[in-house]
Amino acid sequence: MPKVLGGSLAAHRDEVRARVFAALRELLYERGFDAVTLAGVAAAAGVGRTSIYNHFPDRQALLVAFVEHEADRYVADLESALGAAATPTERLAVFARLQLHRLAEFHLPPGQALAGALDPESYRRIAAHADPIGDRLARIVREGIESGEMAAEDPAVLVAMIGAALSARQIVDVPPEELAGSVEAAVRIVLGMVRPSDLG
């Protein structure tokens, strides 16, 4: 019988998932999704191949579960950070900074490439996790326009432009020692994009 980690079946399940997700995160960073196999993730996680197949029948199921887990964690972190920011401009800076650091950590293929690598249902489940994040950005922009801190432009256009800017991998695909500076430069540029013209 396989060894039960953590002393109970529930704790074992949580421990296996935590190990597998940590291993997948590293493998995505090092190799990209195309090179990921369940056997490779199991080996990197230090769990048996049978164990990983009991949790995730294939690599698409693994990726969906990983993205759902990471998205839930990220949204909780985002809400906490946004709650500590006093103004819409400060909240946009927080949002931009967190999005760029998240982009630096995640090494999934871009939208169309990912859509081609997954079946339609798996892709829809992954894409759905972008909705709450986009909603928070839209709310920040609306509040910024209403307060006069941001340009009185079409909110949908501003949100789309900010989203595009914060998905540019060139910002974060830099040597580690340059990442913080690159992110902060991008945050300043995003804030400049939305600043009303009469504020310079």
From TrEMBL:
Residue span, HTH tetR-type domain: 14-74
Gene3D superfamilies: Tetracycline Repressor, domain 2
InterPro entries to which the protein is assigned, alphabetical: Homeodomain-like_sf, HTH-type_TetR-like_transc_reg, HTH_TetR, KstR2_TetR_C, Tet_transcr_reg_TetR-rel_C_sf
Coiled-coil zones: none
Keywords annotated in UniProt: DNA-binding, Transcription, Transcription regulation
Pfam families reported for this sequence: TetR_C_24 (PF17932), TetR_N (PF00440)
PROSITE patterns (alphabetical): HTH_TETR_2 (PS50977)
Residue ranges: DNA binding: 37-56
Name of the featured protein: TetR/AcrR family transcriptional regulator
Organism: Pseudonocardia yuanmonensis
Upper classification of the organism: Bacteria, Bacillati, Actinomycetota, Actinomycetes, Pseudonocardiales
